[in-house]
Amino acid sequence: MQRKLLLALLAILLSPALPAQDSVEQSFDAWLLELRNQAGSLGISNTTLDAAFADVASPLERVLELDRSQPEFVQTFTGYMSNRMSDARIERGKHLLEEHRDLFARIQARYGVQPHYLVAFWALESNFGDYTGGFSVIRALATLAYDPRRADFFRDELLTALRIIDNGHIAADRMTGSWAGAMGQCQFMPSTFATYGTDGDGDGRVDIWNSLPDVFASAANFLSRSGWRGDERWGREVLLPDNFDFALAGTGVRKTVTEWNQLGIRRVDGTVLGNADMQASVIIPAGANGPAFLAYNNFRTTMVWNRSTFYAISVGHLADRFVGGGPIQHMPENEEQALARADVLEMQELLNTAGVDAGIPDGILGSQTREAVRNYQLLKGLPPDGYPTYELLVGMREEASTN
């Protein structure tokens, strides 16, 4: 298929869906009145509603722009990590661990979450509280709840945010966050706040914007109730044997440390793993030519917080660095060439043409596409790591041109 046609198809696929007809016919004012009436029927006071909606006159166009924007390139592991790891961030994290040592000790005693992990989440979510978002959470959520694409989800979040204000945790004009409604120094959505928010300083409110005891107690409560184990690490970088079966990589495969040890996996310094009953998965975020990690339960718990493999590795690795761990040993020497979304679309087309089912081409690098890449690699005698690289795409183009 011609590249121009691919780009045109990609533009169509990624263009925002048109609102449903009934949503178009209902003005924002009418919608807001309906929402306000619903909130009132749920027991939220008029005082709260007056304060919350005082400046909500229309949808925020910037929120809609951000919601509908799509990154041009698929982020690489090397690029992701380099943007989140810096000597300055690591040194600051070490300093803050020491500065708030007594607070972290109390949090750990109650929830069993080790301090260096809490600081890693804090660093990655808001740069230690420096960047919590400048949007009015109520205006942002009202915009997204009015927009029909994910209206039900954001309507529920908006109603929950109103309850948080009504319960006295934060004033409406101080409830700020990201364009999508994530709030405070740990970037909780309102529903997460309602479920896990914790009063860590005993003042009767949960203030994840300004109170560090509340921030860390809330984060630790979330992690603890999601399955965090305070006596285990997140994982470790490892060395894979030359004959490693890459079909065993990924979170879908779990074996004990003893079993991985028997398969020849070693610590990054070459020593044996030893024997343990801990369940672990092999993670290869940059493919067969990048680093490999043995990820334990706390890695999977981190993915309850954020479903990104890259994110989970960055939390664990940054936490390690805060307590004296070294850098990742086997990062690619050169940053991988990022795939544009049009490249992913083309790869999906080529996979389908080669008889490997990648589904309907959409330019999105999801699990079906990765599995198709793995099957294509098996077909061609390549290491079946399921990792789509630009070099693989070039080879697929060349093969298609000769057929």
Structure description:
The chain has 403 residues and is mainly α. Among the domains are: 23-71 and 134-175, no CATH class; 341-402, no CATH class. The protein contains 19 helices and 7 strands. The chain has helices spanning 3-14, 21-25, 28-41, 46-52, 61-68, 77-82, 87-99, 101-111, 115-126, 137-146, 151-166, 190-196, 212-225, 257-262, 297-305, 309-322, 341-353, 367-380, 390-402, and strands at 135-136, 176-177, 235-239, 255-256, 266-267, 279-283, 292-295. The strands form 2 sheets. A 5-stranded antiparallel β-sheet has the order 4-6-7-3-5. A hairpin with an 8-residue loop joins β6 and β7 (292-295). α17 (341-353) crosses α19 (390-402). The two termini are 13 Å apart.
